[in-house]
């Protein structure tokens, strides 16, 4: 029984997605559980053919291996401020694209690009159409899978500027800094410390 269980967990742990990531992975963009992402510099880059965008603009996006290949890729456009975990805009693929597919992350049609087979490639180019309303500066957040256990998460493109945003920092009331959630543990710790101090004094 234990053997079956460990075999099962081994299979789940090394589970990758040769046919592309499932929608459950849209937020964390991690290709399965088990092996940890690589922490060193990624041998992959994400570049665009421009540094700024306006509503409805089409931007050319290229993912390239600076050395070696990749067999898995997952790309989304993410706002730099505000709702930073949500994929924005719409992707399009080149005619006859045989490596990539479009995914509907966050219920938005074609809001992500991913591989659809595990063929090794060195580069791919595809297109991103900006939303019809300003979403501020964005960047392309990517995952690259080199081999099953060797992958990089959170590979960032340069920033794509929204010229309608003049501030260089996020507004203080945005939820990017997790101000509400990150303060909660501090408050809890203070309460626990206060209770502890009272108890030890009694
Ligand atoms: C970037 O590529 C897109 C799609 O090919 C094109 O429409 C757009 O004009 C290009 N932008 C620049 C600044 O070259
Ligand atoms: C990009 O990949 C294609 C094959 O898909 C290859 O022919 C081409 O040489 C590659 N370009 C670069 C710059 O690596």
Sheet-strand content, in percent, reads 25-35%
Give the second-level CATH assignment, the architecture of the domain at 38-156. Answer: Sandwich
Helix content: 10-25%
Listing every helix as H and every strand as E from the N terminus to the C terminus, the arrangement reads HEEEEEEEEEH
Choose one word for the global shape: globular
What is the third-level CATH name, the topology of the domain at 38-156? Immunoglobulin-like
Count, helices: 2
* Residue runs with pLDDT of under 50 for 5 or more positions: 4-14, 176-184
Class of the domain at 38-156 in CATH?
A: Mainly Beta
Ligand catalogue: 2-acetamido-2-deoxy-beta-D-glucopyranose
Structural class: alpha+beta
Radius of gyration: 21 Å
What does the average pLDDT come to? 85
Strand adjacency order, main sheet: 5-6-3-8-9
Largest sheet: 5 strands, antiparallel
Based on DSSP secondary structure assignment, what is the total number of beta strands?
9
Oligomer: single chain
Q: Superfamily at the CATH H level of the domain at 38-156?
A: Reeler domain
Straight-line distance between termini:
52 Å
């Amino acid at each position: 029984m234990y053997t079956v269980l460990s075999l099962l967990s081994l299979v789940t742990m090394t589970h990758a997605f040769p046919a592309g990531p499932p929608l459950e992975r849209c937020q964390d963009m991690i290709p399965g559980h088990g092996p940890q992402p690589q922490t060193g510099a990624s041998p992959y880059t994400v570049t665009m053919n421009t540094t700024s965008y306006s509503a409805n603009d089409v931007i050319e996006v290229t993912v390239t291996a600076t050395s070696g290949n990749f067999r898995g890729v997952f790309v989304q456009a993410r706002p730099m401020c505000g709702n930073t975990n949500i994929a924005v805009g719409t992707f399009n693929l080149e005619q006859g694209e045989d490596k990539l597919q479009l995914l509907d992350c966050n219920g938005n049609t074609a809001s992500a690009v991913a591989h659809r087979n595990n063929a090794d490639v060195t580069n791919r180019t595809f297109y991103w159409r900006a939303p019809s309303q300003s979403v501020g500066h964005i960047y392309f957040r990517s995952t690259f899978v080199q081999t099953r256990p060797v992958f990089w998460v959170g590979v960032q493109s340069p920033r794509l500027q929204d010229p309608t945003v003049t501030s260089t920092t996020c507004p203080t009331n945005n939820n990017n800094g997790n101000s509400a959630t990150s303060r909660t543990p501090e408050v809890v710790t203070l309460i626990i410390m206060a209770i502890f101090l009272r108890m030890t004094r009694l």
